[in-house]
């Protein structure tokens, strides 16, 4: 009769040195991506990318794409593009931060990663809008801050929903039905 395996057989073995180096490299790369994206956001929030500096280029593109576009419509599209950039750039920051935190964290990874990502989004968005409030060619806006926070929150919410569904699908035994 075969004896049951001891609990020692189920314990995980320490990771090998190449595995640890690979994990450390993944963590560093993930946080470097966060830092680079935050730097890009900071740069885009500067005077060089104000509406005054970028509008003429964007309007030329719109005219080339849509020849008979009414000037008011062009302006509305321009505002829509500029405002959606707030949402998108902070959603990307939240996703990158969430990923880096999940890779780095131990226990309670999803919750910790979500809060850390939202904290970083809120901190950078607030700092950027405060900086723009003191700029000569930009204006700090509570509305833009809300768009930034909404972008981060929607991205984190989506990631949490997807991760919970993936976990539920992996924990649920598969049922095979005939017919």
Notes on the protein architecture:
The chain has 5 helices and no strands. The protein has one domain. It is 74% helix and 0% strand. It has 179 residues and is mostly helical. The longest helix is centred in the middle third of the chain and has 34 residues. Helix 4 runs antiparallel to helix 5.
In short:
The protein is mainly α and 179 residues long. The protein has helices at residues 17-44, 51-65, 71-104, 109-133, 142-171. The protein has one domain (22-168).
List its salient traits.
single chain, 179 residues, mainly alpha, 5 helices, 74% helix
Average residue-wise pLDDT? 81
Q: What is the total domain count?
A: 1
Percent of residues in helices: over 70%
Cα separation of the termini: 40 Å
Shape: elongated
Which class do the helix and strand fractions yield? mainly alpha
Beta-strand segment tally: 0
* Percent of residues in β-strands: under 5%
Main sheet makeup? none
What letter string, H or E per element, gives the SSE order?
A: HHHHH
Radius of gyration: 23 Å
Tally of DSSP helical segments: 5
Structural topology:
Layout: H1 17-44, H2 51-65, H3 71-104, H4 109-133, H5 142-171
């Amino acid at each position: 009769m075969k004896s049951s395996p001891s609990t020692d057989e189920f314990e995980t073995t320490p990771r090998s040195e190449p595995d640890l180096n690979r994990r450390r490299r993944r963590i560093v790369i993930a946080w470097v991506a966060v830092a680079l994206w935050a730097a890009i956001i900071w740069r885009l929030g500067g005077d060089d990318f104000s509406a005054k500096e970028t509008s003429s280029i964007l309007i030329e593109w719109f005219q080339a794409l849509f020849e008979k576009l009414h000037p008011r419509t062009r302006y509305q599209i321009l505002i829509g593009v500029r405002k959606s950039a707030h949402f998108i750039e902070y959603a990307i920051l939240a996703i990158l931060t969430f990923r880096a935190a999940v890779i780095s964290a131990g226990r309670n990874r999803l919750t910790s990663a979500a809060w850390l990502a939202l904290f970083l989004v809120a901190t950078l968005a607030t700092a950027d809008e405060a900086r723009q409030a003191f700029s000569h060619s930009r204006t700090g806006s509570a509305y833009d801050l809300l768009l930034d926070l909404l972008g981060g929150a929607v991205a984190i919410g989506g990631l949490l929903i997807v991760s919970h569904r993936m976990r539920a699908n992996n924990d649920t035994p598969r049922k095979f039905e005939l017919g």
